[in-house]
Amino acid sequence: AQRVTQPEKLLSVFKGAPVELKCNYSYSGSPELFWYVQYSRQRLQLLLRHISRESIKGFTADLNKGETSFHLKKPFAQEEDSAMYYCALSFPQGGSEKLVFGKGTKLTVNP
Amino acid sequence: DGGITQSPKYLFRKEGQNVTLSCEQNLNHDAMYWYRQDPGQGLRLIYYSQIVNDFQKGDIAEGYSVSREKKESFPLTVTSAQKNPTAFYLCASSRPRTDLWAQPQHFGDGTRLSIL
């Protein structure tokens, strides 16, 4: 079955410290992975996707098929990065597209 | 801002009552989705629709119903059969898969449903 695991419910770092939000997935096909972010009082929005291979707001994520992981990293965290982060796996099913979310990690960046 | 509009922002339901949550999009997206968000549970898929007049059950469809009569609209009804309806409900839409890749979903601001 398709599954996304984010092992950390809460993550707290200091401003300027590196941050890594972990995401592991279970999927027998070729995975398509996304990171979504929800800032306080804002709607859930796309942060980045594995096919783009670009840095968004200083964040990067590399798909590691051997370890079935898609960890989100930033070398120097900022206070404005404090938010809820969701890893998601997209896959086709019966002519439709489904998205399975992890349970999310709440990142707090302390001053 | 435009995109996806969910209404109302807050909704209260009495025992035994059906309530309908509205979701409208002006993105010209074919696919629409309803998720339920509970603390510590992430987002769970309730129903989804790829085209007008067609929809499929998601992982937690029991106690919910939907319709897709127009491309822009995908209302969700929380019926009295849903025994634990208190949650935050999110609507999303997306373009169809292009070539090999899935398209990202765009989300509304959500509706918070509570039981009186």
Condensed summary:
By secondary structure, chain A is mainly beta. Chain A contains no helices and 11 strands. In chain A, the strands form 3 sheets. In chain A, strands 2, 5, 6, 9, 10 and 11 form a 6-stranded mixed beta sheet that branches.
What are the defining features of this structure?
heterodimer; A: 111 residues; mainly beta; six-stranded mixed sheet; three-stranded antiparallel sheet; 11 strands; globular; B: 116 residues; seven-stranded mixed sheet; four-stranded antiparallel sheet; 0% helix; 50% strand
List the helices and strands and how they pair.
The complex is a heterodimer of chains A (111) and B (116).
Chain A: E1 3-5, E2 10-14, E3 19-21, E4 24-26, E5 32-38, E6 45-49, E7 60-61, E8 72-74, E9 83-93, E10 96-101, E11 105-110
Parallel strand pairs in A: 2-11
Antiparallel strand pairs in A: 1-4, 3-8, 5-6, 5-9, 7-8, 9-10, 9-11
Chain B: E1 4-7, E2 10-13, E3 19-25, E4 31-38, E5 42-51, E6 54-57, E7 64-66, E8 76-78, E9 87-94, E10 106-107, E11 111-115
Parallel strand pairs in B: 2-11
Antiparallel strand pairs in B: 1-3, 3-8, 4-5, 4-9, 5-6, 7-8, 9-10, 9-11
